[in-house]
Amino acid sequence: MKLYIAVGSAMLVVMTLFIILFVAFYQNRQVRHLLALNELREANRKELMEATFQGQEAERRRLARDLHDEIGTMLSVTKLSLNQLERRLAVLAEQPINGGVDRDESVDLELSTQQVQKTRALLDETMSNVRRISRDLVPTTLERFGLLAAIEELTEKASTPDITVTLESPSTLQRLTTAQELMFYRIAQELLNNAIKHASATLIEVQFVCIEDAVRMSVIDNGQGFDYDDVVKDQRSGLGLRNIESRLSVVDGHVTFDVAPGRGSRVHVETRSH
């Protein structure tokens, strides 16, 4: 009887161990499966986000090309026609009054000349805005001269008599991919726009620092700040911040928002160099 009890107890212990090992193996397998599934989802999400941003950049290029090739050309032709009209009016205005142009017609010519000059000024402003929008859509300076030159140009354009935007950076940056440089540029655009339009900042500093194998960009302003949680919850106002995080996820970067209502903001964007 004791032998049977001992054998039965041993079998029970073995079965218990077997069940424990089976449950542990099953749970471990489930964990590995979930991890693999999450990795696959993350990879698919990154591919989707990357494709989305590539599509956006392609659309920006198309719009910039249309603005330059079509709208820009039409404006240039219109300006040439306007210049010809202005020269013709100037010739008519120089004719003596008794030579075929009476006083009323002379006054009309003068008013027409002034109107042409105003129209040309508006046309010049429109052409300038078209060029500016085209450059904003496709940062040619970034493609030709690199990230620091493009950011320097961006800070100079953002500066006004009432707003000071400065750039502090090393002479060169660690090697970055084209996608990383474009990511830094677009995020800098977004943060400068937020600081000027929404935070009413008058002093903004853009800093670049190389940290071991990473590059960090900080945008610091003296604006009125904001509540991060409240902004992110808003579908419209939080779109820019969510876009920043989405862009960084594609290049394995991260962002830190040091913000609060009533004080200046500090936003740090970092990604590994290659």
Biggest pleated-sheet summary: 5 strands, mixed
Biggest sheet strand order reads 1-2-3-5-4
Task: Give the number of DSSP strands.
Answer: 5
| Helix and strand composition category | alpha+beta
Q: Work out the helicity level.
A: 55-70%
Tell me the strand percentage band. Answer: 5-15%
Reading the helices and strands in chain order gives HHHHEHEEHHEE
Low-confidence stretches: none
> What is the total domain count?
2
As an assembly, this protein is single chain
Query: How many distinct helices?
Result: 7
Mean pLDDT: 79
Task: For the record, give the distance between the C-alpha atoms at the N and C termini, rounded to a whole number.
Answer: 74 Å
| Overall morphology | elongated
> How large, in whole angstroms, is the Cα Rg?
32 Å
GO molecular function, one term: ATP binding
EC number: 2.7.13.3
Domain Histidine kinase: 66-274
Catalytic activity: ATP + protein L-histidine = ADP + protein N-phospho-L-histidine
What does it look like?
It is a single chain. By secondary structure, the protein is of the alpha+beta class. It has two domains: 1-138; 145-272, Histidine kinase-like ATPase, C-terminal domain (Heat Shock Protein 90). The protein is 68% helix and 12% strand. Strands 1-2-3-5-4 form a five-stranded mixed beta sheet, covered by helices on one side. It is elongated, with a radius of gyration of 32 Å. The protein starts with a helix and ends with a strand. Residues 66-274 form the Histidine kinase domain.
Keywords:
alpha+beta; 5-stranded mixed sheet; elongated; 274 residues
